[in-house]
Amino acid sequence: MSGRKRTLEAISFEFVMTVIAIIALVIIIAPSLVVLIVSFTSGFSLRFPPPGYSLRWYAELWNAWQLHFAAKNSLIVALWATGLSIVLGVAAALAISRSQTLSARLLDSLFMSPLVLPALAFGLAALMLFSLVGLPVSPLTLVIGHTVVCVPYVVRNTVAALAQLEPTLLESSAVLGASRLYTFRRIVLPLIRPGIIAGAFIAFMSSFDNVPVSLFLRDAATDMLPIRMWQDLEGKLDVTIAALSSVLIIATVLLVAVMERVTGLSRRLAN
Amino acid sequence: MGTAPASRDVTSYGMGLAAPLALFFLVFFVAPLLQLLWLSLHNDTAGLHWGLGQYLHFLTDPFSLSVLGSTLLLGAEVTAVCLVLGFPIAWLYQRVGPRLQTIIILIVLLPLLTSVVVRTFAWIVILGRQGIINATLQSLGIVDTPLKLLYTQFGVVIALAQVQMPLMTLPLITALGRIDPNLDDASCSLGAGSWRTFFRIVLPLSLPGVIAGCTLTYAAAITAFITQSLIGGGQMLFMPMYLYQQASTLQNWPFASAISIIFLLAVLAVVSVFTTLGRMSRGYGGA
After folding, report:
1. Do A256 and B118 touch (CB under 8 A)?
2. Which chain A residues have a beta carbon less than 8 Å from that of B230?
3. In this structure, are residues B94 and B146 in contact, taking their beta carbons and an 8 Å threshold?
């Protein structure tokens, strides 16, 4: 009798949890699917379901030179910011990862703080400092600002990769007569490379998508893709944006698939 | 046997390697924030007269206080929705095979890496007058005229919850993975039901993950300027947009600086409350 009661109770629990989990997963995935479907509409509005299907908005996107220009700028800034983040971030991660000293822990907190501080406040602060020292906003100030908010991802993932490194490997290498630099190149770097790549990938994506820092640090001539899209959406609901969004969604899915292969991204982020 | 001191050397690198990034942060991160603080403590735009005028203005102005209040409330609502929806995902993750696990993780991860503007745009399509929700409700005859979903608090909360869900779910998956599955069986074999086991064993033991997830979700939700402004529209004003309007449209940098500092302090206060709770819960979990 009590056994039967308990199974009913267990079934009710599992049922509720599974249903909520499935609803939650649908809520996560549905918006992307809706955008993909709407982008193929033959109509002029974002009506769902679309009245008919066509590729007209992709043709429209092909000719939207303003969006192309903005995309090019975003790509260039993201590449520079990612490159700078890798150089500065990997070096810093090597220094702080195995050190338990107070200064190492303070530096770690400092390097991670852009992740929780409001980026808009940092954007305004950086603009004020640049104007104080007489440095006009330009692609250079954009790269600097983006690097500050992107470097934490590289530091965090590199530190995590270094933490998994077996110290005995490095000791054996040293005992066998390898120099520190040789050990770094032949042992350490190959082992932490997936971590660095994963961090650089997230840094790149977050730079490409950044609005708050770009809003303050770009000059009038440097249009950035997410800002262009945001301003287009504030004005009118253009279906071209749906086509562009679909392109970005597909590109993200493909990049994530590649990263999953190369770096095991999902395991890295779930641990 | 002189390798013992040398072995420490080969596994660690000098702190000097952190110098370039430390210097970069000092010049381009710490200095700007100090400059922000400095300007916020001045009563005039030129920064000649020291004073707490900007802060007094904010703290005595009912409008500014209501913006701060609604922003903090929004964060709490989004965090609550993410927790209620995210926990079952983490629970399901621990119960399925490795293939489904990878699929679940990738579903959770994708929005994290998809552009925020794109994700927000999707919600405009869903919540709009001709959007999927209104179309469904109308075709089922549940409503005659389209519901107003866009530009409402409900719309902002649901869109932000979807946008920030990965930040809640990933730490929860990690935390649930660390719980000894035998505890679950032990609790059940001692006669506690599934619900009771969940609330008395699983939930308390996953508190470090819950707190980590809540911290990230809350901080991200209150600063998520794009989603707030596009889904909320002109009617609803939250701290980031308020800051941007004062700084950019009105060029009132001292007041915008004070707003930034107050906002920063609010975020830091929330993070440190959560961190303290996290430390306490780890003690509880380890006991």
Report:
1. no
2. 230, 233-234
3. no
The CA distance from A70 to the nearest CA of chain B, in Å, is 14
A185 part of a folded domain: yes
Q: Does A57 touch chain B (CB under 8 A)?
A: no
User: Which of the 8 DSSP states describes residue A164?
Assistant: T
Tens-digit pLDDT profile for residues A132-146: 899 999 999 999 999
Residue of A nearest to B177 (CA): A271
Q: What is the pLDDT of residues A54-98, one digit of tens each?
A: 998 999 899 889 899 999 999 999 999 999 999 999 999 999 987
SS (H, E, C) B162-199: HHHHHHHHHHHHHHHHCCCHHHHHHHHHCCCCHHHHHH
Distances (CA, A) of A66 to A51, A231, A240, A243, A246: 28, 12, 12, 15, 18
Is position A162 within any domain? yes
Interface touch A95/B110, C-beta < 8 Å? no
Q: Does domain B61-286 have CATH number 3.40.50.880?
A: no
- Record the tokens describing residue B153, joined without a space: 């608090």
Q: Is residue A221 part of a domain?
A: yes
Q: What does the domain layout of chain B look like in residue ranges?
A: 61-286
**Is A157 a domain residue?**
yes
Q: Would you state the structure tokens that stand for residue A46, as one six-digit string? A: 């974002």
- The confidence band for B280, taking pLDDT boundaries of 50, 70 and 90, is confident
**What tokens were used for B95?**
């119960």
Q: Of A25-29, A182-186, B72-76, where does mean pLDDT reach its minimum?
A: A182-186
Number of C-beta neighbours around residue A133 at 10 A:
9
Range of the domain at A138: 64-269
Q: Which helix (H) or strand (E) holds A266?
A: helix A265-269
Can you give the pLDDT at residue B11?
Answer: 62
The model carries a pTM of 0.90
What's the rounded Cα separation, in Å, for the pair A98 and B267?
30
- B174 to chain A nearest CA, in Å? 5
> Which residues on A lie below 8 Å from B88 (Cβ)?
17-18, 20-21, 24
pLDDT at B6: 42
Query: pLDDT tens for residues A151-183?
Result: 999 999 999 999 888 888 888 888 888 888 888
> Residue A2 and residue A5: Cα distance in Å, rounded?
5
Mean pLDDT score, B82-110: 91
Say whether pLDDT at B284 is over 60: no
Residue A129: CATH number of its domain: 1.10.3720.10
Domain count, chain A: 1
Q: Which residue of A has its CA nearest to B135?
A: A48
Residue B2: the pLDDT is: 39
Say if the Cβ atoms of B20 and A88 lie within 8 Å: yes
Interface of A with B in 218-247 (CB under 8 A): 226, 229-230, 233-234, 237, 241-242, 245
Q: How far B63 CA sits from the closest chain A CA (Å)?
A: 20
Task: Please give the pLDDT value at position A5.
Answer: 56
Q: Does B247 touch chain A if contact means CB atoms closer than 8 Å? A: yes
